[in-house]
Amino acid sequence: MWAIALLGKQSEILDKPDDLDTVLKEKVNDLEKNPGAVSPAWTQYRVVAKEAEFWQAVESMPG
To answer: What is the pTM of this model?
Structure first.
């Protein structure tokens, strides 16, 4: 879905999960009105993870 590429907020913390849904719906509507907003040179990939590993920082660790 190209609308996700237009969000531009990959590194920002979400206050609420619903925030992503709201902004994504807005971008989908924008793309329906202006499909030329996405370059035809863009390539879309789908990545399916078989597993995920999460790390948590601990303030007491040096580093």
So the answer is: 0.54
